[in-house]
């Protein structure tokens, strides 16, 4: 690096802000000053915010499954492509943990660069995947799921995944419906704190009409998870105050 002309720090930062994460990871090994700049928490937050509002940096995450009739399972593949029609739209296959590739059901959510996956076949095994660096992390079962006595009296949990820009934290939402008590248990997992906790907030509707009948797909926008029930009511979970609204 000694033979290269010196660039002011603000110019280097402005260049780094325009680069994708993959390039930044490579440049971290060039020199100590670049490593310090790219690894700085304020830079990471600013880069994430810029990426979240710039359509040219957004990507679609698509899930493809093939039913294997003989084995009674599905072969899953997850691909990523550019969201902007003006960008290079080549499809990139993402490496997923092997234990997720050959099961019948798989739920996939993506937000701000991370992917959350869970499968009913694996007892609601939950995994966070960083596709850029190819690393993944298992998430421990929620407190409610660990209680086998109450778990037998609940329906299949409803999951959600989003980024809380205020707390600067990725959060996983898991909602259980107790059949015998007509009651909801809602838990939140903090990726930053690596722990589950229950919140005292039930759905703002009667349990018979909504809570058991939510579509599996979610829409996450500005720290709010939106889901639609079968009778077309929209239920929203706000990450900042951790409350549910209709």
Would you give an account of this structure?
The chain has 246 residues and is of the alpha+beta class. It has helices spanning 9-17, 21-27, 32-38, 41-53, 143-146, 148-151, 207-211; strands at residues 59-68, 73-82, 92-94, 107-111, 114-119, 125-130, 135-139, 158-164, 169-178, 183-190, 195-199, 219-221, 224-228, 234-238, 243-245. The chain is elongated. A hairpin with a 4-residue loop joins strand 9 and strand 10. 20% of the residues lie in helices and 37% in strands. It has three domains: 9-53, no CATH class; 57-139, no CATH class; 140-246. The strands form four sheets. The protein has a four-stranded antiparallel β-sheet with strand order 4-5-6-7, with no helix packed on it. The chain has a four-stranded antiparallel β-sheet with strand order 8-9-10-11, with no helix packed on it. Strands 12-13-14-15 form a four-stranded antiparallel β-sheet, with no helix packed on it. This is Class S F-box protein. Residues 1-47 form the F-box domain. It comes from Solanum tuberosum (Potato).
